[in-house]
Structure formats: C-alpha cells, structure tokens
Design goal:
247 residues; eight-stranded mixed sheet; single chain; 8 strands; Mannose-Binding Protein A, Chain A; 5 helices; globular; disordered N terminus; alpha+beta
Amino acid sequence: MGYDGDMRGLRGAATAAAGLALALVVACGRQLGGGDGDDGSALPEGTDASTTGAAPDDAGLGRDGAPHELDGSAPLTCPPRDANGPRIAFVTYVRFPGDHPGDGAPGPAKFDALCTKLATDAKIAGKFVAYVKDGADEPERRIRNSGVGWMRPDHQPLFVGSTIPLDVPATPLEVTEKCTLVVDDAGAWTGLSPTGTNEQSCTDWTNAAPQAQGHYGAPSATTASWRTEAAGSCATPRHFYCFETAD
C-alpha cells in the first residue's frame, strides 16, 4: 500500500476507536444516572431536577397534591421535657395555604388537629393548638394561660411565666417539631395585623384563593413582628405556630 496508505489506515482505525470509546462513556453515564432525568437523559428546559423525585412522606400537601415541605436546617439538640417545666411551642416544619386542606372541621380546628399530630409524630407529648386568630377571639384565648410559660423544643425559653397576652419571645420561635430551624422567609399564619385593625385571616382559615389575604408573623423575630409582620396571599403556603395547652 505504501507509506501514505499505511498512515491513512492507521488514522482511520484511531478515529473509529475514539468514537467507540466516546459512545461507551455516554452509555455508562446514562446507566449511572449521570443525566438530569431518571433515565440519565436531559430534563426539558425549565424543569427543576430537585422536583422530579418522590415527595417526602412528611411533606405538607397543597390542594393540588404538591408538597410545600421545607425548611429545616441540621437538627438541634432537643432533650425530653420535664413534666413540671415550661410547655412546648414550635413552628411547623411544613407550610400550608390559608385553608389547610387536611381532615376535620373547617377553620382553625384543622390547624389544631395538625399541631397535635405533628407533635405526636415527633414524639412530643401533650395537646397543642394553633396560634391563630379564631373569629373575634385572639390567639391567647385559644392557647390559654400555661402557668409555667413556654419554651422551644430545644429548651430555649420563649415566654417566661404566665403572662397573657404574650409579649415578645425571649428567643425566636423558629424551631420546628422536628428540632430544626426554619430557614425560609415564608412567615407563619396568625391573622394578627401590626396595627390591631383590619385583621385578615383567610376568611377564618377557610379560603386559599390568591386574592384572599391573611396576616402572618416572622418566626425569626424577637419583636412584635413574630406575630404581626405583614399580610399576604392566602394561596401562599406558610408555617404556623403550635402551643402546648393544658386541656
């Protein structure tokens, strides 16, 4: 064949070998889940890869069945509560629209039932009610006077003694029943306005329409904003506060 023919043959063989190696790398990558999709293929443009997996079992669900879960940091240390010590208060790990679509009677009773369920699932004993306005009743009428105050699940003090109505927390009410810190800025439903007038509560917690409004507080605050930060759409999932009560 001559020198030129031999070189052309060698170059052709090298090109074929390189092509075969590239095909094997791509195939192996797809088998190992190297792509964004479940089969290794690319996801459609605009799809968030974090949403393609199964929803966590403990995710809060919106009315469309989509999880509105979140939002905890690494777990803190939360020892068992002394039966004679302050009661527990926490902010929910999950977020819900203004008409939490769970089981039970409409309105605040649904939030109360969920508070107790979340506490029970987290192995926190006791009966809990939601710190939300109920018609003309302020939240303090719902949680009642504990006589011993409230603390977070990690035993940091919140409200010392038996003062009702509650003032500002000694530490932020930002620890969840799962013993994690809330790390988003969604807020926690309360139905209390900063001025004490024109208070909005998503039609007494039965309305999640985008145009409906509800007041919420800021779990990270140690000022009056902890319960009266602003108002927002009832369609937006938010946390809420749960307080242990005596009965």
